[in-house]
């Protein structure tokens, strides 16, 4: 007869039974109990390293045990109280316990608050988002899940991220395209944001300032910030702007008179349509689209001038608006870029896409107290938008843009060579 010679396992201890009982009752409480036990083991190891074994007589010890106290650490987006040991050195001063310091300094609370507010969870519902009202881990006063506590953590973390964002080094980025556009947050609150595209087609949020694109000082402050952080003004780039004259002037002042500026065709068409009667919209839009699709810049310019001439009799103001900044509207055509690349770079759609994410992130803000608050929120939205950015659709054709920008720079900066007269 075959006998089972496998020895029987040891009987379950009371601690194991208690742990399984915790799992059956509440998984949250089991995880909490397991985490506290693991932290207690690490703290006891740190205390032993500093004080020697309990009840031992170690002459080389650096400190001695000094009872226990209650402290708070982060858990589930809030705080819980935990018993921790105290240690004092031979000089009588408190000695820090490394494992406890690490657990207490872990900024899970700030990251919880930041993440939930970016996905439109209001501060009033923060506690409910991280702790179930009927759950087994309570949220007593001081647990850090109140609306004011969540708001304070968001303000602190968003301010730190804004500072890092506005000081990030740009010298390592091979930026070929810089888009600048304005964002209206209220009747009297406007911000200007810049976003860049590198040689691989990757998109990078660059900078943010308060003010409008029509304000020369605001735009100049934005460009000065980019240059001070490592954006080389001598490298040829394509600048895409919403059409403000102050913006074009500041770009040429900072990056040279030969800077290639493309005025957003969507903004231009929208401004024209707002000034025309509805019956003229279809025909005007058709002519503009036909001109922008042409591969010959001279033919496109002639088509737009003919449109302005037809409208000049009845709508002279609109005709003047069509001709204003005509060269900048056709920059991507004059650079002879492929059609797919022209469609991506003829407007500020990349910036508009980012603005859509910013509007979603700031949807719960009911009142903008000041520009500092707006800068923090919008910078957080730009960083959030960066997580979902995809490469430029026509990124494989960016080498054509690089060559075209260099040729444009060479053509605009070439100087005639003076003839040297021979001596008689």
UniProtKB/TrEMBL annotation:
It holds the Pfam family Transposase_mut. It comes from the Bacteria. InterPro entries: Transposase_mutator. Keywords: DNA recombination, DNA-binding, Plasmid, Transposable element, Transposition. Required for the transposition of the insertion element. Belongs to the transposase mutator family. This is Mutator family transposase. It comes from Bradyrhizobium barranii.
């Amino acid at each position: 007869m075959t006998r089972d010679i496998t020895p029987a396992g040891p009987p379950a201890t009371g601690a194991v039974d208690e742990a399984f009982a915790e799992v059956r009752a509440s998984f949250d409480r089991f995880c909490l109990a397991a985490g506290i036990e693991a932290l207690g083991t690490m703290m006891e190891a740190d205390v032993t390293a500093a004080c020697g074994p309990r009840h031992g007589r170690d002459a080389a010890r650096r400190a001695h045990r000094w009872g226990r106290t209650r402290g708070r650490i982060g858990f589930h987006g809030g705080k819980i109280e935990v018993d921790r040991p105290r240690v004092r050195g031979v000089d009588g001063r408190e000695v820090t316990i490394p494992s406890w310091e690490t657990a207490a300094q872990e900024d899970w609370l700030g990251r919880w608050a930041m993440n939930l507010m970016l996905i439109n969870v209001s501060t009033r519902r923060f506690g409910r988002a991280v702790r179930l009202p009927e759950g087994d881990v309570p949220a007593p006063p001081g647990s850090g899940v109140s609306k004011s506590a969540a708001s304070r953590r968001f303000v602190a973390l968003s301010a730190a991220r804004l500072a890092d964002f506005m000081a990030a080094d740009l010298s390592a980025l091979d930026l070929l395209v810089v888009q600048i556009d304005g964002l209206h947050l209220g009747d009297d609150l406007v911000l200007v944001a810049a976003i860049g595209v590198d040689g691989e087609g990757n998109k990078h949020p660059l900078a943010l300032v308060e003010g409008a694109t029509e304000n020369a000082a605001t735009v100049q402050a934005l460009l000065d910030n980019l240059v001070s952080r490592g954006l080389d003004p001598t490298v040829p780039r394509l600048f895409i702007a919403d059409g403000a004259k102050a913006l074009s002037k500041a770009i040429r002042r900072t990056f040279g008179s030969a800077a290639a500026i493309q005025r957003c065709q969507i903004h231009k068409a929208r401004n024209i349509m707002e000034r025309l009667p509805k019956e003229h919209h279809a025909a005007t839009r058709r002519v503009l689209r036909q001109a922008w699709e042409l591969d010959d810049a001279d033919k496109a310019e002639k088509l737009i001038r003919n449109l302005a001439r037809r409208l000049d009799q009845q709508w002279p103001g609109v005709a003047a608006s069509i001709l204003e900044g005509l060269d900048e509207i056709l920059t991507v055509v004059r650079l002879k870029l492929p059609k797919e690349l022209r469609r991506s770079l003829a407007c500020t759609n990349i910036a508009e896409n980012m603005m859509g994410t910013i509007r979603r992130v700031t949807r719960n803000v009911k009142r903008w107290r000041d520009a500092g608050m707006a800068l923090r929120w919008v910078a957080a939205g730009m960083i959030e938008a960066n997580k979902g950015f995809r490469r430029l659709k026509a990124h494989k054709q960016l080498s054509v843009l690089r060559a075209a920008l260099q040729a444009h720079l060479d053509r605009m900066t070439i100087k005639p060579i003076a003839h040297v007269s021979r001596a008689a």
